[in-house]
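Bug report (template v2)

What were you trying to do?
Predict the complex of my protein with adenosine-5'-diphosphate.

What happened?
Run completed; filing so the output is reviewed.

Input:
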Amino acid sequence: MNSAAPLLDEGIRGTAATDHAAARKSFSPLESAPTGKLLLSADGLTKSYGSFQALRGISFDMREGEIISVLGPSGCGKSTLLQLVAGLAQPDGGKLALDSKVIASPSVMLAPEKRGVNMVFQDYALWPHMNVFDNVSYGLRQGKLRKADIKERVNELLTMLHLDGLEHRLPPQLSGGQQQRVAIARALATRPRLMLLDEPLSNLDMRLRVEMRSEMAYLFKRLGISVFHVTHDPEEAYAMADRIMILRDGRVDQLGTPQEVHSRPASRWAASLLGAYNGLKGAAVRTGDGTGWAASIGQARFRGLLPLDFDNERGDRELILMFRPEDVKLAADARMADGDNCLDAAIVHCAFEGGRWRALAETAERQRFYMVLADAIRPGTMVSVKLDPAHAFIYPFEK
Ligand code: ADP
Ligand code: MG
């Protein structure tokens, strides 16, 4: 038996040879999702608790080696979806296939241990009376690996996860970050086809969370492992995912690469979730050249990104312009020549955020929005601000 080396070494060697190509591929903007073999496929999954429909028809495909982050606020159905994939709950409708074989539907339910998936929970769920080594090797000890091979594999994982020297500690003698890494090591030990992570970092303090999310993304990519990951934190999803699935009230609102969802949120709701929470109400008007639509807000006109299915014939309806505080710029004292995408506003309040300021501003029509500034501006000051059309997300107001 050639012990632990294959999974870990192959994973590392596999990417090392093409490191630069892989890096370019992972970080190029609007890259497409991995094109590996189809691993998991969901088709119209539904799940209710009594009369409450937690999942309302979820469909997606996932490729081998892909990291998908399911992103949404508390209660939108993330954990329920993860439990369907893990085999801890059965769908009421639709089906779920692994390697094109149906593993779950109202009439089919493959046992969790036969799915080749391992799960890491928010609270880690380590065995408190077992030391680190025993926790990590638990799944392996149920199999038929030799003792020496188990030891080698566990030690390798402990090294990768910076847990060397802690083999004999009990979980209560570890920090939150260390416990979290033990849980990941334990889930990786049996070499699952698919790792399921339910809010794995939410019990850690902020600095550790930021550190761990990069480290985890790096580790999973190095191992080439497929990961289905759930979080309510957009930054965690951005940092870890090949594709982000935005879940809203049990439905997929948008599924795309981090760059896609960031630069073109599919709905007003997704825009707000992804940091573009400023909203100014306006009306649809024809652009100057008559070829498209803009939002008029008071005297100002804003060109921006409209939904792909925007209905031109109903151009008189109300629109909402959504944008990120970071994307609003102070215009030089004069307005841009054509006046488009500029707005006059009064600074209402200005708060220091350590290295930058967040100002609350108000338009002539008394609509308020936030902007991030390099320097403080005294409340009461009138400013002219501008917003690049590429950062102006416009939606029908009712959405
Ligand atoms: P999330 O993980 O996104 O916070 P969940 O999947 O845990 O959401 O829950 C989705 C919805 O289903 C919530 O409104 C929750 O209250 C409800 N729910 C979850 N589990 C149960 C259950 N066992 N019984 C009844 N309702 C549940
Ligand atoms: Mg949850």
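What did the reviewer find?
The mean pLDDT is 87. DSSP finds ten helices and 21 strands in the chain.
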